[in-house]
Amino acid sequence: MIPICTDRATRRTPFVTFSLIAANVLVMIVMASIERQSPERAHQIVSRFWVHGPEFHWYSLWTSAFLHAGALHLLGNMLFLWVFGPGVEDRLGHIGFTALYAAGAAGSAGAHAYFESAPAIGASGAVAAVTGAFLVMLPRTHIKVLFFFFYIGIVWIPSTWFIAFGIAKDLFMHAMAPHNGIANLAHLAGYATGGVVAAALLLTRIIQPEPYDLVTAFRQSKRRAALRRAHEAAQRDIRSGQALAPERAFGEQEVSLAAARRKVVDRLAARDPDGATRAYRELVDEHGVEAGALGSQTLTAIANACFERGDHSTAAVAYERFLAHYTNDREAPRVTLMLGLILGKYLNDPIRAKQVLTEALRMDLDEEHKALAIRLLDDLG
What is the SS3 assignment for 154? Predict the structure, then answer.
């Protein structure tokens, strides 16, 4: 499977990603020129800057990431950086992405130097860190890949499948043939570095969580489990005839959930759309996407406010909750159309966008909205 692109829309131009690719290509051109004139001199330069445990130099943690063993080695690494770099740079910013790339290069090269005796070069460890961060921060994206195995074609697959396959491949190769000439351990260290850094940034809220990143999903699963346990305990107490205080009867999590939902409604009633959208994001972040199922009018008001303020991911969550709970509402056709528009134009999820827009065309849309749905489908190809 050769990755081509992702369906993640970006707001920033990935200058750092482009610069890293250009730097790697430039180093490759310079080294090729030196090798044509003097292979011995080229080898001396490479051996000076590769990462090598028995002859370790601190700067090789980074210099080794700009050296490659041929055009195919460079092409493979730069292709993965081109595909996964922009999404991560968009989430971390230019400085944060630079720091992550440097940490990934150092972490992967350091692990190789410590555990392996052979020298290593290449950006694959740093790129693996970018890929690991992508997995943690953007797991709901899809990857367009050129697939060839019994069949050749271009397909979209979930990014989690693609990245998990890469991790599993490195684990298998390192376990079965640890001296296979590929720095599989460095790749694994890179994945771990990127994943841990991304998770730490989300946990500390240095970068804002999104409704579907892995950290938020894990938090939501824990909260759902706590709610189930609290509900089951309350039901057992009720069956046993014990008198309970409201907080105990419903569980602290349920009381907290009710307060978070009430805050959203109160902010809307106070005509504070900014406060209402913040409260809704906090509700979804703290209690899970399913907790975002409020009244039909509340959901449309929140979704519209989020959309107007450019918070398209939260708007999509609110529209999805509306459609999950108010399928027969008279606003359902318009909400379906809006969800399809957001998925296609702002969240860059063409597969789901096509499904949603096709469903919208089956609904009772007026002619103007039906024409918009058809135009959006045409734009998506």
Answer: strand
Residue positions counted in the chain: 381
- How do residues 353-366 score in pLDDT, each as one tens digit? 898 999 888 888 88
CATH architecture of 2-203: Up-down Bundle (1.20)
Measured distance CA(157)–CA(165) in Å, rounded: 12
Distance CA 378, CA 254 (A): 45
Sequence-distant (6+) residues with CB within 8 A of 337 are 357, 360, 365, 369, 372, 373
Check residues 180 and 164 and name the one with the higher pLDDT: 164
Cα–Cα distance, 284 to 293 (Å, whole number): 9
Alpha carbon distances (Å) from 255 to 157, 247, 261: 40, 6, 10
Q: What is the pTM of this model?
A: 0.68
Q: H or E segment at 2?
A: strand 2-6
CB atoms within 10 A of CB 21: 19
- List residues bridging with 3 in a β-sheet: 145
∠ CA 140-144-146, nearest 5°, is 145
| Domain residue extents for the chain | 2-203, 214-380
CATH class in words for 214-380? mainly alpha
Per residue in 80-116, pLDDT (tens digit) is 999 999 999 999 999 999 999 999 999 999 999 999 8
